Amino acid sequence: MSGVGSIEKALRTAPPDRLVEVLDAHLSAAHGTKSSTVWLADYRSTTLSPSGDEPDAADSQLTAATRAFASQTVVVDAREGHALARVHLPITAWGERVGVLSVVLDAERAQQAREGLRDLAGTFAVALQAAYKRTDRYHLDRRRGGRLTMAAEMQWDLLPARGYDQPGIKFAGQLEPAYAVGGDHFDWSVNGDWLTVTALNGMGTGLDAALLSTLAVNAMRNARRSIPTGQSAPGDLADQAVLAADAISSQYGGTRHVATLLLSLNIATGELRIIDAGSPRLILVRGGQVRDMVLDPQLPLGMFGDTRYVEEQERLHPGDRLFIVSDGVHAATRPNEAAYGERELSRAIRSTRLQPPAEAIGSVMRSLRDYHAGAELADDALIVCLDWSPRADP
């Protein structure tokens, strides 16, 4: 057995904390590489760090690896007259950008080997995602830039993934401050033709807010996963909201609540179901124009017992983009200045029109940090970006 099949078996049978070493051995034996480096993205997706001890990981390698990560393309560094070349390959699983695989091999083989190596990097990405829950190694690699607070640890561990990319849909989200986020969170799931997304802003700060958001997310997941066998839709959004609201109300007696936006998108048709139960805003980008989607505001989850919720329906057009932003973005303020959302948010969103969602949220976050003049964000901030186009016929 050779190629992708052999590496799949090797990774499947390897201890979860040894995937990098198993990959390196396979690359050397099957592809003749001289060395390899696995770079993992930090929680802000702005910095790459080598997994394990990599004394030979020079700045020049990091620059090229960062370019491959940002562009999501293979970067070949082959210099004239040099016998060896470096190939930098995105490590991406179902659209979530995880990191970069850099390999050194004979320069004459670099171009020929790039596609096979890219497939191998994709196989490694899936194995790495599975290993995250079975070892601390890769978590430690990702947080070399700082320590997570307890609340942030809970929020990142609760998150299914930060991105998704399949025919018809591209989706990405980010939480800030990445190493100290408290109550802001997003959750999502794909079931058949439906993508379900929830964006939450738990009342309070720090650990209390994280606990509240964790309860809400799991209550909505419980409702979503209770779909009768054979039912085509991903569960009723109203049922999800009611169950979560009842769980929060029962636990906190109305003293705590969670501002929440729930939506389900039919990836095949563009049908959009929405419940606006709080402060996260839904912004539509269509034909270069940016506007808030005007929704019927309903009570935040858990404010009162026995609250009932009503879905609204819209239909997206091919090429539409949606942004979800929490109040830490659209209502961000500085002393004696206009709110960020009034002054800069639309401009920042318009500037992302040529960027895929993962880059678009990074651009808006940078604009938000610039507004705060480099200071740590005063409030949790959540940005989700979603692009929709009809899937091409098979």
From TrEMBL:
InterPro entries noted in UniProt: Bact_Sigma-Reg (IPR052016), PPM-type-like_dom_sf (IPR036457), PPM-type_phosphatase-like_dom (IPR001932)
Keywords: Hydrolase
Keyword flag Hydrolase: yes
Signal peptide limits: none
Gene3D superfamilies (UniProt xref): PPM-type phosphatase domain
Residues of the PPM-type phosphatase domain: 166-388
Highest taxon of source: Bacteria
EC number: 3.1.3.16
GO molecular function: protein serine/threonine phosphatase activity
Presence of keyword Hydrolase: yes
Protein name: PP2C family protein-serine/threonine phosphatase
